Amino acid sequence: MLPAPTIAEHSENVMDADSGNLLGEIEALSETLREVKSMIGRRIIGQEAVVDLALTALLSGGHALLVGVPGLGKSRLVETLAVVMGLSSSRIQFTPDLMPADIVGSEVLETGDEGKRRFRFIEGPVFCQLLMADEINRASPRTQSALLEAMQERRISIAGIDRDLPAPFHVLATENPIELEGTYPLPEAQLDRFLVKIDVDYPARDAERRILLETTGPDQEEISNVLGPPDLVAAQRIVRRMPVGDSVVEHLLDVVRACRPDSSEASPRVSSSVVWGPGPRAAQSLMLAVRARALLEGRLAPSIDDVSNLARPVLGHRMALSFAARSQGENLGDLIQEVARKSRP
C-alpha cells in the first residue's frame, strides 16, 4: 500500500490543480475576448487603443472617463459595448439643471386601490449595468456627488434605505475638452474613482476612409451578443486570480511612488512640477489593469511593458501639475512616460 500524502504534498497537488484550471480558464476567455474585439471592430473603426482601454476597465471591474471632441464615436462605443457584452444600459445627458433624483430615482406618494397612500420608489437610470454619463462635467457638484456614491459603493441611499445596483455596474463617462463654459470640473475624489482616463483622438486617414464608406451606405454592419453579465463577472474574478511576477510588482511600485512629489523616490522634475500624486487606489487600479491587458492579449501574466503602457491612462487623472509647470508647457502624460521609462529594471 502506498503511503498517504503529507499535508504539504496535498497542498501542492491542490495548487497544481488550481493552476491548471486557471490556465484553461484564461485560454478559453482569451479566445472569447478576441471574438468580442472583432465584433466591436465592426462598428468602431480606427480606435483600437480606445476599445482596448474600455475593455480593460470593464474586465478590471472599474469605470472609464472618455475625453474627446464631439463626433469621435464615444456614444457609439458605449452602445456597441452594451450589445456585444449583453449589458443593460442607460444614458444620461448631463446638464447644469440635472438633479440627483434624475439619476438615482425618487420616492413618489401614490394612492392604492384600497385608498391607502404609500411611497413607491421609482428607479433612476443609474439602475443598469452600463451607464453612459454624457458630458459628466456639466452636472452640478451636488449631482456629481450622487453619481460618486453609486460608482464607489455600487449602491445608493434613498430615504435611509440602501438599494443595491445591478451587478456588474460600470460607468463610462464622457467629457468635451474644448468647451468649458457652463461646466463644473470633476473633483479629485470623483476622478480617482475612474480606473482609466481614455483620450479619444481623431482616426488615421485610412481608418476615416473606412468610416466614410462603411457608415454612410444603405447597409450597416450587424453586431450580436458574445458575452453575458455572468460571463463578465466571471472574467473579472479570473483577472484577480492571474499571477503577477515580482519584477512587475516592483516596477509598478517604482512608477507609482516616483510620481508622488513628496516621495524620496521622486525625481527632481516630479518634485518641482507635480502638486499631488497617485495614492494606493491608483496602484490597485494599475495592478488590475495590467492583468486585464494581459488577458486581452492572450497572455497568462502581465509584463513590465504592460505597466509602462498603462501608467499614463491609469495615473494621469490622479495627478496635477503646478501652475508654474503648466505655464512652462509641461505635459503630464510625457512626465509619466519619462518616470515609467526611467523606472524600468
Give descriptors for this structure.
alpha/beta; single chain; 49% helix; 14 helices; 345 residues; disordered N terminus; two-stranded antiparallel ribbon
Give a quick precis of the structure.
The chain has 345 residues and is α/β, with parallel strands linked by helices.
Task: Write up this protein.
The longest helix is centred in the N-terminal third of the chain and has 35 residues. The protein has 14 helices and eleven strands. The strands form four sheets. Strands 2-5-8-1-9 form a five-stranded parallel β-sheet. A two-stranded antiparallel sheet has the order 3-4. A hairpin with a 5-residue loop joins β3 and β4. It is α/β, with parallel strands linked by helices and 345 residues long. The N terminus is likely disordered. α2 crosses α11 and α11 crosses α12. It is 49% helix and 16% strand.
Task: Show the helix and strand layout.
Layout: H1 7-41, H2 48-59, E1 63-67, H3 74-84, E2 89-93, H4 100-104, E3 105-111, E4 117-123, E5 130-134, H5 141-153, E6 155-158, E7 161-164, E8 170-175, H6 188-191, E9 194-199, H7 205-215, H8 229-241, H9 246-258, H10 268-273, E10 274-276, H11 280-296, H12 304-315, E11 320-321, H13 323-327, H14 332-342
Parallel strand pairs: 1-8, 1-9, 2-5, 5-8
Antiparallel strand pairs: 3-4, 6-7, 10-11
Helix pairs in contact: 2-11, 9-11, 9-12, 11-12, 12-14
- Characterize the overall form: globular
Major sheet: arrangement of strands: 2-5-8-1-9
Q: Strand portion, in percent?
A: 15-25%
Whole-number mean pLDDT = 85
* Helix residue percentage: 40-55%
Poorly predicted tracts of residues = 1-17
Q: What is the helix tally?
A: 14
**Order of SSEs:** HHEHEHEEEHEEEHEHHHHEHHEHH
